[in-house]
Amino acid sequence: MPFFTATSLVEKCALMLARRPRHSWNYVWYSPPSVTTITASERPGFAPWPCKFLEKQLVTNMRIAAAIATLSLTCLFLAPMAAAEGNLERGAKLGYSCLGCHGIDGYRNAYPSYRVPRLGGQKAAYLATAIQGYRDGTRAHPTMKAQASSLSDQDIEDLAAYLASIGAGTVASGGSETEGIEAAATCVACHGQNGISMSPTWPTLAGQHEDYLLHALNQYRDGARSDPVMSQMAATLSDDDVELLAHFFASLKGLETTVVE
């Protein structure tokens, strides 16, 4: 299955909506690799367009396509804002305590148990957004909130610039070559086909710890993390989808532990 751009997904869904049958009793929903057909004999007593499940699926796909299109436009508008650089020297002083967890390979969060995220090679603008989220309450984590609560916006910019500057060799070299997987077709619009984001605003996922990716996706699903795009995306994922995506992106070369040499 080819990967779709935001535009092609919107056009695909619009075409499906335009072709909605008005006088037919047969309704076909295509979801590779299977095709499901519901006929009048199988659903007696229903008028045209009887299958509410199919209508719900179509609406869900339309919402996803709209979210991707919105997200792509957001990238264009936010990219100039992300060009501002923090002060690395100040960031190094602020980031000393961060390396007590993020600078130890395999260091684990106590409860729930998962490895703390790798930050080496991550986008500075995304790191700034994440830290602001912990400070402002859109992300839930007691330790991170305590660490971020006293930081000013400038502190956060400096800290993010410093953390993004160390352990970035693999991301800078381009990461893994991959054709991707079907389940990640919508993810690549923002996070890159090989998990390395081309936008400064959206995170690189390649090389991130699998258990951390599982934790993050589940937080978006249950509302512990709030994001206008990711909350919608994660809401459509099953448990199997979450496990498959986390395993795929973790298997790629990319992010590294932020170890200072």
Beta-strand portion reads 5-15%
- Give me the strand/helix succession: HEEHHHEEHHHHHHHH
Low-confidence runs of at least 5 consecutive residues: 1-50, 75-83
CATH class of the largest domain: Mainly Alpha
Q: Write the CATH architecture name of the largest domain.
A: Orthogonal Bundle
Average pLDDT metric: 78
Give the spatial strand order of the biggest sheet: 1-2
In CATH, the homologous superfamily of the largest domain goes by the name Cytochrome c-like domain
User: So what's the overall shape?
Assistant: globular
- State the secondary-structure class: mainly alpha
Distance between the termini: 43 Å
Number of strands: 4
Computed Rg: 21 Å
- Largest beta-sheet characterization: 2 strands, antiparallel
Task: Domain count, please report it.
Answer: 2
Work out the helicity level. Answer: 40-55%
Subunit organisation of the chains: single chain
Describe this structure as you would to a colleague.
The chain is built from 12 helices and 4 strands. With 261 residues, it is mostly helical. It has 2 domains: 6-78, no CATH class; 84-250, Cytochrome c-like domain (Cytochrome Bc1 Complex, Chain D, domain 2, Orthogonal Bundle). The strands form 2 sheets. A two-stranded antiparallel sheet has the order 1-2. A two-stranded antiparallel ribbon has the order 3-4. Strand 3 (108-109) and strand 4 (114-115) form a beta hairpin. Helix 1 (6-18) runs antiparallel to helix 2 (52-78), helix 3 (88-94) crosses helix 7 (153-165) and helix 5 (124-136) crosses helix 7. It is globular. The N and C termini lie far apart (43 Å).
